[in-house]
Amino acid sequence: GDVVSAAFNLAYGRSPDAGEVELAKSFLERQAELIHHRLEKGEEVAAPAGMPKDSPALAEGAALVDLCHTLLNANEFIYIN
Prior knowledge:
The chain is built from four helices and no strands.
């Protein structure tokens, strides 16, 4: 919840609603699992700046990067209502 709320506040200037929190948490879990598999194959991933490549939380950090990319590419970020 906290990281999702922080991402929404930074991207949109608002807190996520309950549905958005659940979707984001689900995305982070699935994405981290996919990234774990990519890391096992030796593939590169987009990790947070400064995060060591051998960090046990690398997949979770890379999943958060992907969530932030998703938020920044959503219509809410691009267009003013």
